[in-house]
């Protein structure tokens, strides 16, 4: 009977998985507890703390050899500390012989820096390489800023969607939502807005004009004259003159008069654009204005600006901690997405298809 017992123990060990929280903050621990409660497992024992010189230290308090490990990491305001916590914990698990290390990162940081701008760098690609080097073998995230970011990684990325939860909120919590219209605050957000509008069977409006571009390329050297060289050779090509953009007057494409306006986006951080959009929609006759966004970063004085604006309600998910902002602004509401994160963990561990989590969801969403 001894070999049978050994085989049974080996099978148990092989199928075991643990869930750890890479952040000692209350918000991350709360999300991790919600996920583990839904899964019916205990949260892994670990300690994550900052030394007196601000170095990150991680101590894993139990054996992880040969196991599949899920690391839950929410990104609070100190984004760089959170990244180091994730990297150090992943590397600690890797060197402790964990079989698979899967990062559950609902909001992926630096996702806005996913394109080359002037003489900058694509930081999102750098972070993807760092996570792979630290030992991660898979990532579960939610509503990446650009879908193409998945191509930066050398391992699988499951980009979950929050839209079913936000659509459910619209249907259940917004009275008379049938009289609503979905609004894209810029043409760039039109695809996401169209996806919401089609699934809710509502109309669509797009705000166009006053292109929000905080970057000016006047000072980056492109307009500086070339050095004068006394060469008698080839004089160079005559390139066509680059036409400068001219901001058109702001217009709303679509009728919002007498309607509830619902602005949808993936991230709400600097709320200036949203406040300006709300003012325009009020002028055009919208009588209530809601904002639906997956990641509520709400930096700086965003809560105060929302409270003083024409916006009636801002609905975000709990991918990012925002308890302090909610205390400052009662207009901010939270939708819990721990259910889909827990289901993704369960399906990955059991080797089940993830397609069920993406049913009726288009690529544009």
TrEMBL record:
Molecular functions per Gene Ontology: ATP binding; magnesium ion binding; ribose phosphate diphosphokinase activity
Coiled coil region boundaries: none
Entry keyword annotation includes Coiled coil: no
Pfam families reported in the protein's UniProt record: Pribosyl_synth, Pribosyltran_N
SUPFAM superfamilies assigned: PRTase-like
SMART domains assigned to the protein according to its UniProt record, in alphabetical order: Pribosyltran_N
A GO CC term assigned to this protein in UniProt: cytoplasm
Annotated gene: PRPSAP1
Chain ranges of the Ribose-phosphate pyrophosphokinase N-terminal domain: 25-135
The name this protein goes by in its record: Phosphoribosyl pyrophosphate synthetase-associated protein 1
Gene3D superfamilies assigned: 3.40.50.2020
